Amino acid sequence: MTIDFRGLSARDLRALITQAEKRQTKILTRPKASAMRAKINKYVKDHGYTIEELYGISAGSAAKEAKKVAAPKSAKGRKLGKAAPKYRNPANTNETWAGRGRQPRWMAVLVAKGSSPKDFLIK
Questions:
Q1: Where are the alpha helices (DSSP H) in the chain?
Q2: CA 30, 33, 39, 45 torsion-angle sign
Q3: Tell me, what's the pLDDT at 2?
Q4: At residue 17, what are phi and psi to the nearest 5 degrees?
Q5: pLDDT at position 53, please?
Q6: How far apart are CA 72 and CA 66, in angstroms?
Q7: Angstrom distance (rounded) from CA 27 to CA 88
Q8: CA nearest 53: which of 44, 64, 42, 40?
Q9: What is the C-alpha R_g of the chain?
Q10: Which of 54, 86, 121, 122 could form a disulfide with 99 if both were Cys (CB 3.0 to 4.6 A apart)?
Q11: What are phi and psi of 7, to 5 degrees?
Q12: pLDDT tens digit sequence for 63-100
């Protein structure tokens, strides 16, 4: 994260420093994640529930799923070729999308307004 300090006034700098100090204090004084997990597990157990009952997954599989999401494997050995575009923006025909990855903003806005992704398929 890079912050350009040159454009900030003295008041803005003071506010930024105050926010950073509050965040630092919060991070330094919070309990460790393992201690917090133990407290949550004890609370849940004391009230007669299990983690699986509350969240629909076991605690062990939840940790595994979190690791999968948090640390994806690199695609070093996997080569994906460039995909042909499947969708085109009707307002700007230079904007296309192959259907891989995150939906582009232009399409997300149009879908939110009620259009269907099928409306933008390239024929």
A1: 10-29, 33-46, 51-55, 59-70, 105-112
A2: positive
A3: 81
A4: -65, -40
A5: 84
A6: 10
A7: 45
A8: 44
A9: 24
A10: 86
A11: -90, 0
A12: 666 666 555 555 566 777 788 999 999 999 899 999 98
Q: How far is residue 11 CA from its own chain's centroid?
A: 32
Q: Give me the pLDDT at residue 39, please.
A: 92
Query: How far is CA 54 from its chain centroid?
Result: 23
Residue 121 in contact with residue 86, Cβ under 8 Å?
Answer: yes
Span 107-118, pLDDT tens digits: 999 999 998 889
Specify the amino acid at residue 77: G
- Locus of tokens 């999401």: 69
Residues 6+ apart with CB under 8 A from 119: 90, 110
**Vertex 23, ends 22 and 25: CA angle to 5°?**
65
| DSSP tag of 87 | E
